[in-house]
Amino acid sequence: MKNLITIAVDAMGGDGSPQKIVKGINEHHKKNKNIFYNIFGNKNEIEKFLPKDLNSNCFEITHTIEKVEGTDTPLGAAKRGKNTSMWLAIESVKNKKSDIVISAGNTGALLVIAKLNLKMIENIDKPALSGLWPSKKGMSVVLDLGANIECNDKNLIDFSIMGASLFKSLFPEEKPKVALLNIGSEELKGNDIIKETYQKLNQLKNDDFEFKGFIEGSHLMDGDVNVVVADGFTGNVALKTAEGTANFITSELKETMTSSLIGKISSLLNNKNLKKFKKRLDPRLYNGAIFIGLDSPVVKSHGGTDYIGFSNSLSVCERIVKGSLIEKIKKNIS
Predict the structure, then answer these.
(1) Under 8 Å CB-to-CB from 130, ≥6 apart: which residues?
(2) pLDDT at 282
(3) What stretches in the chain show pLDDT beneath 70?
(4) Alpha carbon 104 to chain centroid distance?
């Protein structure tokens, strides 16, 4: 078991749990036999959904009836006590019994409980919430997605280093190309903080990533950069705008293709291309936000995703551990 990657799983967070969590684990295990799952939650509920063919040697269930509710405030969730499935899962990482922790539960609660249990990496002032974003040339890492509303230039530089380390962990064959999200690509655009960050990153001698300057929101999907850095307010607005736009496009396309006879004929003729387009925008493929800056990695699966999305976020966990993310951040931040 020592040679296995061990993932601590909060089985009680998110819509449809623990059923979708168990199905996600089973789906992930079919393709990945080198993972051990430390599962935390109501054992009686979890066992209802365990497939008979799931190897009992690949998981262990720690029973608790306590859980963080989706309606809890972050402080309220922390006050629920140390017996919730979320707290116990994070504590498993703290006590070095697991390599990484994942939850589909309350985002605010996860961030607060993680910060209460885990130490910050030395020289980093604030952790950041990062996520994967599709582009024309593959995948990008975007951070911060909402953990820090206000940031100074040091925070943004730290995010750049951490984001580059995360990208390298996930995609070891590619070199990280970092850009700051701004209202324009010109050097004089933006507020004082982002302009100061630009100057310092330009002067920073770092072989671990290439700084590409500013990027506008309209070019996020171009793929010319693969690490996009912003404060949490800007990053969260960009994320929600992109999600809304993708949903609008897919729903409008579906309406157009099914509302008339010509549309239905056209959809049949273009069935292969439409399936390819739908798969490209499938949010389940990009599920799994990563809370970085703490001395252990914490992954947040979307609460509304299904078991396929949760399985994909377990794959993100596996790649983070294999890519030695924490070690890379510690090395690069110093």
Answers:
(1) 141, 142, 143, 144, 145, 162, 163, 166, 289, 290, 291, 292
(2) 65
(3) 1-3, 253, 257, 261-283, 286
(4) 11
Look at residues 296, 298, 301, 320 and name the one whose alpha carbon lies nearest to residue 166.
320
- Nearest 5 degrees, angle CA 94-CA 98-CA 104? 90
Tokens of 63: 């029973």
Domain boundaries, the chain: 1-124+294-324, 125-292
Query: Are 129 and 146 a contacting pair, CB within 8 Å?
Result: yes
Q: What is the reported pLDDT for 1?
A: 44
At 264 the pLDDT is 66
The phi and psi torsions of 87 (rounded to 5 degrees) equal -60, -45
**Class for domain 1-124+294-324, per CATH?**
alpha beta
Contact 32, 54 (CB under 8 A): no
Q: Which CATH class is domain 125-292?
A: alpha beta
Look at residue 267 in the predicted model and tell me its pLDDT. 60
| Orientation of helix 107-117 relative to helix 85-94, angle to 10° | 40
* Per-residue tokens: 225: 């950069």
Do the domains spanning 1-124+294-324 and 125-292 agree at the CATH topology level?
yes
CA distances for 52 relative to 18, 49, 117, angstroms:
16, 9, 35
Query: What's the pLDDT score for residue 252?
Result: 74
